[in-house]
Structure formats: C-alpha cells, structure tokens
Amino acid sequence: MPHPLTARTRLLPVPLVPEISIHRIDGVGLFDLTGGELRHDQPPPFWAFAWAGGQALARYVLDNPAIVAGLRVLDVAAGSGVAAVAAARAGAAAVDAVDVDPAAAAAVLRNAAANGVTVSARAGDVLGGSAGGAQVLLAGDVFYSRSTAERMSAFLRAAHRDGARVLVGDPGGGFLPERLFAKVAEYLVPVPPALEETDQLSTAVWEMRATIRPG
C-alpha cells in the first residue's frame, strides 16, 4: 500500500541537479508532516524532500562520472534516492539503495523510473553488516545525530577497508568525523526555507581518507 504522503508529492527538478526530477513535497517542513514530533515506530518521511547532502552528492557524481562509471554503487540511507539516480545516470554498472524506511525504498524506485534509470532498492538497516561488495558508497545527510554518526562511521570505515570508495554529502550538522575525510567539493545548495529555515546551505562532499588522521 502506498504511503499516505505519496499523493502529496509532485515530480519536481532537484534545485542543484535540475537534470534529475524526484517526487517530493515542497513548501512545508519535515515537522509539518509529522505533527511536530518524531515517533520511534514510524520513520520520518525523509524521502519526501531533496536534502542538501544528497543534492551535493548527486551534483558531484554527475560532474565527475568516472567516480562511478562501470562500478557497483551503494546509496546508504538513500531517502529519495537522488544520489542513486545520479550514479545510474553517470554510468554505474549497478546501483543499489538501502534505507530503513520501506516508504523510502518505494520512493527510490519511483524516482529511478521517473528518470529512466534502473536502481535496486530495499528497506533494512545495513549498518551492522557489510556493504555487499559495493565499490563506491554514497551517503548523504547521515551525520545528523551522535548515535547515528557513530554507527555510520563504523559501517563506512569497514567498507573502506574492504576497498570501497566512500563519499559523503554533509551540510555541516555537527557530527561528521572530519578526521576520517577530506573535502573534495563544496556547493551552495538551494533548500526550502520551510525545511531548513534558510534558502541555501553550504554543503560539502567529503571522501574518506586512505590514511586516517589521529584525533
């Protein structure tokens, strides 16, 4: 059964990546859709928005297609799947997307179809497992809380040790472990004021370092 909010979405271009359109809700914020509270038994509808980190990742991948061309890509905590769609458009051999929210997995499939690309999507928590042999990992807007940041960092480091290239899109939420990463790009990303209380966010793309700095 489709998520109740699906009917409220519209297929709209992604502001920083107008080559891609996704089904999203514009003009309201996340808390407007959740009644002002987040519930543990129901994931917030992150998939209904174009978040700054995902936009930055998508822009970077489309501008640097050699990063993913001919490779297996995994979009972690995919949300709407904008980074996954960008990877598919940039020539990845296969793109998988995973999110804990089944509604997000469904949104990824809708958005991939709307852009004429193929992406596999599933719901689940992979942070305690492996990246499944992916050669490139994309993770946008994932360092939004301390507890999530710790689990995400461990997962990404394990994938990196297994040989994966790891790219993160982050708008400076405060929990990114910068010592693990090197900044490779930065964008001013247009965002809805109702969502972020500003109309643009300085958002960086970071790549996990081959050698981790101490500290």
Structure explained in plain terms:
The model has no long low-confidence stretch (mean pLDDT 91). The chain has 6 helices and 9 strands. The protein has one domain: Rossmann fold. The termini are far apart. The radius of gyration is 16 Å and the shape is globular. Helix 3 (82-89) links the parallel strand 3 and strand 4 (94-99). A 7-stranded mixed sheet has the order 5-4-3-6-7-9-8, sandwiched between helices. It has 215 residues and is of the alpha/beta class. Helix 2 runs parallel beside helix 3. The protein has helices at 30-33, 52-63, 82-89, 102-114, 146-161, 193-196; strands spanning 10-14, 17-24, 72-76, 94-99, 120-123, 136-140, 165-170, 181-190, 200-208.
In CATH, the architecture is: 3-Layer(aba) Sandwich
C-alpha Rg, in Å? 16 Å
Q: Total number of helical segments?
A: 6
The SSE order reads EEHHEHEHEEHEEHE
The CATH topology, please? Rossmann fold
Strand content: 25-35%
Strand elements, count:
9
- Please state how the strands of the largest beta sheet are arranged side by side: 5-4-3-6-7-9-8
CATH level-four homologous superfamily name: Vaccinia Virus protein VP39
Largest sheet: 7 strands, mixed
The number of domains is 1
Helical percentage? 25-40%
Structural shape: globular
Instruction: Measure the end-to-end span.
Output: 47 Å
CATH class: Alpha Beta
What is the typical, i.e. mean, pLDDT?
91
**Which structural class should the secondary elements be placed in?**
alpha/beta
Q: Which blocks of ≥5 consecutive residues have pLDDT under 50?
A: none
